[in-house]
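Ticket opened by: R.M.
Priority: normal
Category: complex prediction / small molecule

The reporter submitted a protein together with pyridoxal-5'-phosphate and asked that the result be attached to this ticket for the collaborator who will pick it up next week. Submitted input follows.
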Amino acid sequence: MSRNLELFERGKKTIPGGVNSPVRAFGSVGGTPRFVKKALGAHFWDADDKQYIDYIGSWGPAIVGHAHPTVIKAVQDVAVDGLSFGAPTEAEIEIAEEICKLLPSVEQVRLVSSGTEATMSAIRLARGFTGRDAIVKFEGCYHGHSDSLLVKAGSGLLTFGNPSSGGVPADFTKHTLVLEYNNVEQLERTFKEIGDQIACVILEPIAGNMNLIKPSAEFVQTLRALTEKHGTVLIYDEVMTGFRVDLGCAQALHGVKPDLTTLGKVIGGGMPLAAFGGRADIMGCISPLGNVYQAGTLSGNPVAVAAGLTTLKLIQEPGFHATLSRRTARLAQGLAEAAKEAGVSMVTDSVGGMFGIYFCDAVPTSYAQVTASDRERFNRFFHAMLDEGVYLAPSAYEAGFVSIAHTDEIIEQTIAAARRALARI
Ligand SMILES: *Cc1c(COP(=O)(O)O)cnc(C)c1O
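Result attached by the on-call engineer:
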């Protein structure tokens, strides 16, 4: 029996489903999850010592590659001085200054430990600041697992959402309106009718949790104009896109200045660190300055801050994002060409260090289009690639991630592997 399977069976006895986050269980693609023994650069090794080229990168954080020596050294250096104090440190100010420097929309920032905490806190803050209850999110966007965001669309326009998870009272989601991504007309109608009641709109500015979906320029510009007009707080949830799609994040690519931004993944460099920040007048409503409560025992943890700050410095090396984008675009292009050669209906897209693979004829622009793609074929491709030693996200609805450690050679190896895999499916 493979060691991966052995560990999976053992893990299932004491951990629900054998995993600590659901997508890791391979539920949607089937088969045995790979247990990671170690990782370096663009690769990791599983419990059976098989090597993989990794296109998840811990779901985004590993943008400089796994176990980057400078990041590891920074973590080791601070760890010997103590792991957590529950009192402020200078490094927290340094990373706040770094984030404010890179994001002009962020005047003040608060550190937390997960993206879920960041979005949950940003929404509470937006409600406290505006004195309004209603919030808007878009179908297919994921903003962590807090109650009011685990919601699916109601039955009609302006009907508020229903819980999409057990354990969430309908009362908790009745203030969350779910609209369609890229649907400008629906957005305009909604704001015309109830704009003055909406506390905030939370957006994945480039969606990465329903595969990769880009917004239209009209959609993001309309959203900014309407939220501004109605005094609604615009939250860019850049937990995934932050510092991955561009040094200035998705907001720089859009030329949009959101009121609040949430960050995670890359800013922790692989450690539990996330943040929310934005306009100083809004951030001033947070405790201890204001009456919106928010706190965290491990917030701004020194080891996490060391990993994050070091990562943020590494990605500012000249040409970092240009190289990352070029290699990711080459990967996407090469995969699409391989599919064409094999006569498989599969297209790809990319932005910065993120890419999407879609088993359909055209790049989707909405959740409905993504979910109409050929999932069975994706699953066969996923397993064929796994056999080839390429680890893609184990779901047709997730984006892929490239790191700067993915050299041109590794990208070409991946494309060659895809050619063989596509010929087999
Ligand atoms: C990953 C993610 C989150 C949640 O972050 P966690 O650290 O997993 O809680 C929130 N929003 C977006 C856009 C994400 O991709």
